[in-house]
């Protein structure tokens, strides 16, 4: 019986220890847990002392011991919450939480894609649809079906990339190959444009590259005339370069068109007065065109006695260089971010 008051006094001392236990970090909190709530902690030993308490006071002892345990658990929970809050605050490196977030910079389309898409939209407005084909072609679609004989200079190994193991397979040198494939598989009327990458064995310089992009157009139907070609090209030039643009057609030669022409536009920089862009002539060449040769129609299975058509083709790099006054074609292929960032607003 003499030990009874000591047990209750011990609980009072434990309450004071719990209340005044100081914690500065996570290690101190863990020390508190082990000392008071661990499997060999002070509260565990306190609970074991119930056997020494008289029966008439066991209820009182149990209630008091549970109060001590609850006080320890509540303090431990409060300590953990405080440490978490302190840790979160320490990781914040933005002194002003009302500051706007750091934005992620947006990219932009490549200038060649910007101009290509603009050309496509212009021709789509007058009924042309986009057709595409393979970049690795055969001799028939790249040359023979386009009325290019075996002795034509463009078939030379110095002008065209041939596959070494199969000389009849090559990298297409023009997107006219797409026109042939469409004519072989579709009956007139045909009204298409064929944008895409082409390859020629050129020495890379500021004005030429071994790979570049073209957009070619084809319109085949009954009673198609050179006047239809001219009006189509006037519409295109004015939509792309401005409504005050004039065009000029000069006689030329292409194996797959007859008659053929080169088309110039009035210089949009100097308005025809003469500058370094137009070489002081007032005119800038942008594309080749002509009426589809009847032999090309016949080889593709289209009756040339019933149908006529026109075709045209242009280099996207040339159009882009003129439109944005770029003086080196190599810039399009170097992925220099300083160059590409200038065209963000264009698309």
Can you walk through the features of this model?
By secondary structure, the chain is α+β, with helices and mostly antiparallel strands. It has 2 domains: 4-91; 111-346, BirA Bifunctional Protein, domain 2 (2-Layer Sandwich), CATH 3.30.930.10. It is 39% helix and 20% strand. It has 11 helices and 10 strands. It has helices spanning 4-20, 26-37, 42-48, 55-91, 111-124, 139-142, 176-185, 226-241, 294-299, 316-324, 337-340; strands at residues 129-130, 136-138, 162-163, 166-171, 190-199, 211-221, 247-254, 257-266, 283-292, 308-315. The strands form 2 sheets. Strands 1-5-6-10-9-8-7 form a 7-stranded mixed beta sheet, with helices on both faces. Helix 1 packs parallel to helix 4 (55-91), helix 2 (26-37) packs antiparallel against helix 4 (55-91) and helix 5 (111-124) crosses helix 10. The chain is rod-shaped, with a radius of gyration of 42 Å.
The SS-based structural class is alpha+beta
**Which percent range fits the helix content?**
25-40%
What is the name of the CATH class of the largest domain? Alpha Beta
CATH topology of the largest domain: BirA Bifunctional Protein, domain 2
Question: What is the H level of CATH, i.e. the homologous superfamily of the largest domain?
Answer: Bira Bifunctional Protein, Domain 2
Order of strands, main sheet, comes to 1-5-6-10-9-8-7
Which regions are unreliable across 5 or more consecutive residues at pLDDT < 50? none
Mean pLDDT: 86
**Could you describe the largest sheet, including whether it forms a barrel?**
7 strands, mixed
Q: How many distinct domains?
A: 2
Secondary-structure element string: HHHHHEEHEEHEEHEEEHEHH
Q: Beta-sheet strand percentage? A: 15-25%
The name of the CATH architecture of the largest domain is 2-Layer Sandwich
């Amino acid at each position: 019986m003499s030990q009874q008051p000591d047990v209750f006094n011990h609980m009072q001392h434990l309450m004071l220890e719990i209340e005044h236990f100081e914690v500065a970090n996570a290690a101190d909190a863990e020390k508190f847990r082990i000392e008071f709530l661990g499997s060999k902690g002070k509260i565990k030993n306190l609970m074991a002392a119930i056997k020494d308490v008289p029966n008439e006071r066991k209820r009182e002892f149990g209630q008091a011991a549970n109060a001590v345990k609850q006080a320890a658990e509540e303090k431990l929970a409060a300590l953990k919450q405080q440490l978490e809050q302190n840790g979160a605050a320490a990781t914040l490196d933005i002194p002003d939480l009302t500051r706007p977030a750091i934005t992620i910079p947006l990219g932009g389309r490549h200038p060649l894609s910007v101009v290509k898409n603009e050309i496509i939209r212009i021709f789509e407005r007058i009924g042309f649809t986009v057709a595409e084909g393979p970049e690795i072609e055969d001799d028939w679609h790249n040359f023979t079906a386009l009325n290019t004989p075996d002795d034509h200079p463009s078939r030379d190994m110095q002008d065209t990339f041939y596959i070494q193991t199969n000389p009849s397979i090559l990298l297409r040198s023009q997107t006219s190959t797409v026109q042939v494939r469409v004519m072989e598989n579709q009956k007139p009327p045909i009204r298409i444009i064929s944008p895409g990458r082409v390859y020629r064995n050129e020495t890379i310089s500021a004005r030429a590259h071994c790979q570049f992009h073209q957009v070619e157009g084809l319109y085949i139907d009954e009673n198609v005339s050179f006047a239809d070609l001219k009006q189509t090209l006037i519409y295109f030039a004015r939509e792309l370069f401005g409504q005050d643009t004039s065009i000029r057609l000069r006689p030329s030669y292409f194996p797959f068109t007859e008659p053929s022409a080169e088309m110039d536009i009035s210089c949009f920089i100097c308005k025809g007065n003469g500058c370094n862009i137009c070489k002081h002539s007032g005119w800038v060449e942008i594309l080749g065109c002509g009426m589809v040769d009847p032999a090309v129609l016949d080889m593709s299975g289209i009756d040339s006695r019933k149908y006529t058509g026109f075709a045209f083709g242009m280099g996207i790099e040339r159009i882009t260089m003129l439109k944005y006054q770029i003086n080196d074609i190599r810039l399009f292929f170097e992925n220099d971010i300083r160059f590409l960032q200038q065209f963000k607003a264009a698309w």
